[in-house]
Amino acid sequence: MEAFLQELKRSLGSNDDLFEMQYVFLGQVVTLLGYTTLTDISMTVSSLQQQEHNARGSRVGEEAFWHTIGSVHPLSVRLAVSAVLDGQVVLLIEGRTAMIVVDAVQRELTRAIEAPSNESVLQGPIGSFNEDLDTNLGLLRKQACTDSMRVLNYSAGVAQRKRLSLIYDARHADADMVGKMIAQIEANLDREIATTQTLSRMLGFTKWQAISKFNTTELPQEAVSAMTKGKVVILVDRLPIAYVLPNLLWDMFALENDRNYTVPIMIIIRTIRVIGVLLTLLAPAFYVALVAVNPEVLRIEMALSVAVSREGVPYPAIVEMLLMLVILELIIEASARLPKSIGPTLTMVGGIIIGQAVVTARLVSNMLIIILAATTIANSTVVGFQNSLSIRMFKYVTVILAAMFGVLGIMAGMVLLCSYLASLHTFGVSYINLSFKGEIKHG
Amino acid sequence: MGKSDKSLHIVLLYCLTQLGVIYFVYPEDIIASAEEGHWLPVVLGIFVNLIVTAAYMKGLRYFPKQDLIGILTGVGKTAAVLFLLPITVYLFMVNLITVRAFAEIITIVFLSNTPLWSIIALLLAISGLIAMNGAFSIMRTGVLLGLLFLPLMAFVIFMSFQNADWRYVFPLLDDNLGFLTHKSYLESLFAFATSFLFLGFVQPEFKYSPKKVLLGIVALIPFYLLAVYIPLLTFGRATASTFKFPFVMVVSTIQINWLMFDRVTMFLLLSLISFTMLFIALLIWQTGVIVGRTIPKVKMSYIVTALSVVTFIGCVMVRNWEDIEELFLCNAVLRLYVWLIVPFAVYLLGLREKRRSGYGNR
Description:
The structure holds 2 protein chains of 2 kinds.
Chain A: H1 2-12, E1 18-25, E2 28-35, H2 41-57, H3 62-69, E3 70-74, H4 77-85, E4 89-93, E5 98-102, H5 133-144, E6 149-156, E7 162-169, H6 175-187, H7 196-202, E8 215-217, H8 220-228, E9 232-236, E10 242-245, H9 263-293, H10 300-309, H11 317-337, H12 343-360, H13 366-379, H14 385-405, H15 407-423, E11 425-426, E12 429-430
Antiparallel strand pairs in A: 1-2, 2-4, 3-5, 4-5, 6-7, 7-9, 8-10, 9-10, 11-12
Helix pairs in contact in A: 1-4, 5-8, 9-13, 9-14, 9-15, 11-12, 11-13, 11-14, 14-15
Chain B: H1 7-22, H2 25-33, H3 39-61, H4 68-75, H5 77-109, H6 116-132, H7 135-159, H8 183-189, H9 210-235, H10 237-240, H11 246-252, H12 265-294, H13 300-317, H14 321-330, H15 332-361
Helix pairs in contact in B: 1-7, 1-9, 1-12, 2-8, 2-9, 3-9, 3-15, 4-5, 5-6, 5-12, 5-13, 5-14, 5-15, 6-12, 6-13, 7-12, 9-11, 12-13
């Protein structure tokens, strides 16, 4: 007993927030062990005392009392350590070879359910996932409200043990695909899953994908709608997002929340997103191609006005374009890094530089600023931030090919992109499928 | 990979590869072959194509668990060499000619200052990348390209009626069937001679319904007619017959006031080239499959790379358009062989197989 306590403390290391207290319950001396930073000790102890009082009143035996306050286990350092790390309290009884893991009162370490911070919702359910896995599961259950939802819990990782939940709708999901995922997860439970990269390695995806294999969302509504389309949702403790597998091309354009509008409006909204993606990929490339390689394709008036606007710009169109695109990327990245109170300064300074100064200084042409603005705006119409990142990256492919081969290069870039998208598949589901029921075995 | 109906993918791929080919040499040949009533040669050609493709698919049906290579090697070593060697050489030659010809067209139309070899390299690199991912990936790329470029093409075709004079349709019928013996008419039939082959290569993995493929061919009839008739309606037969690529010429004459682009030809050519890239990818893939079957240890991606490099060297060695035409003529015997002998040979082999298994059952 004493030896076990010593070994347990050694395993947990010397920590000042580890508490060890002795109490007497039903005449037995017990030792309580846990972290003050994770558990509320006074509340836990008073709850235990209350239970002891009740037990005395109803003349419950000592053995039965131990079972009411927690789960009784044989002595095991491993189990005790993971219980303490989970915020529970280990109770050791003097002279016994059993320990009790008491479900202690937790400190409030999780924020409340709030509005999403990365996806904004117009006229739809606004509550979003937070860092607590159980809360997120609860949100999903509440949203789905169906008896066919299945939840599987795992604990993965060695250095950092993280809980992971795999959720699917048994009525819609393909059993074959779910089986493959479960097998993949169970075979790799010793992998760390603290980030999306490590999680994707655990699921057996290659590191070098330009498009995420997961579709991520903060909204329970989107996660549940994905489940009813047969997809699988993965939640990881401490990550306020749901990973939806498999990710499909159409997810870039369609949100479940679009269905809160009438059909014509929904179609228009989605068309706008498609136009946005095409514009992002094509506009900068067309500028480079038409200025540098194929000016004859343009109408003569247009070609002249482009030429006039570029008068005095000392370098080729591709350098001009890349220069401004990189500056724009810097602005986007910087405004993501800065605290909210300083952000507006940056936007203002960036606006002045891009909008006025570079043109006046004849470093870039007016036309380029228009193209650039259109590209940036169009790029943000895509659903999901990770998709917008991928599209942002792909536009460089078309821009560079356009600089080399003109309009032909743009077309080649689009063909290349199409073939890349067509070659992707996740657990046997092709990326470009609209829906994948009955498609799963291919690929 | 399991089996399920992939008819749509396959029909679309067939149609796209055909569309990529028929807007260049095909109208020129048909216009040259007949004085009037051009619809008859077009429809007759498609009819022959229907019969050939139907026979080919019918033959393939008798071997549901094998692809074309499996069927031909199943007959015996000599037969396999007799059939597969010409097919391989043919596919390779078609690939070479297509890449080289398109590179030439591209240089003429938009990139007069870009060196030819870099255009060839671009075409082959992208097609090779598509081919590396395998048949299903080629089909799915076809779907995406169709979504992107078919509307563009439809727009151009719609616009190309701008200068049409409908009186040129008449006379509807030619009295003599002189076109049948015309050299250009036989050449025009070559437009059909390649696309259908892949139906035998995708077979064991992907199921398709032959009826839908035939329907797809029938659905293409308007496009063949448009390819021939739009130049005729715009210029009249006498003028149209003097042009190298009559359809491309028509598109160059289109003037659209509200468009910021001066040359609508670009859109048409871009769409056609994208379909042609798909066609080249398909050719490389088919050649790769045959080569891969003879040297099974080498990875498909290496074979595809090697084929692309060899094609590149071949293309660079072709000096000018005359050389291309010469190659085209050299290839004619092989073309006839692949287009007329192979499908019917497969059909006969199928019949034999059926009879044999019929005896086995008794």
